[in-house]
Design goal:
The protein has about 120 residues and is mainly alpha-helical. About 65% of the residues lie in helices and about 0% in strands.
Length: about 120
Amino acid sequence: MNQETEVTAVPEKEERMWGMLCHLTAFSGFIIPFGSILAPLIIWLIKKEEMPFVDDQGKESLNFQLTMLIAFIISFVLMFVFIGFLLIGVLCIYEIVVVIMASMKSNDGVRYRYPWAIRFIQ
């Protein structure tokens, strides 16, 4: 008997778009306080039941944004010893780069995993 390997199909165009938006809406955090968490959370809550790809990418985006929130809080505390100023700059650049990478991968239908993200939501 042959074991069947699970082949994951490329998600539909609409599903890929919503997955990409889960990542891109995190940039709203640069304008709106906690927007980087609220915007992906809203998309994930609305679309997670009907689109498995959005469920996966929404959780991934939220986990990363929560990890970044913790990193920014730690950097803010470290500003009192001046290393925090450097860390905040590095974190901002890192977040911009990996969110753009995640958005591009999601648009291609790839289930992107952020490096160094704590998995709060399974």
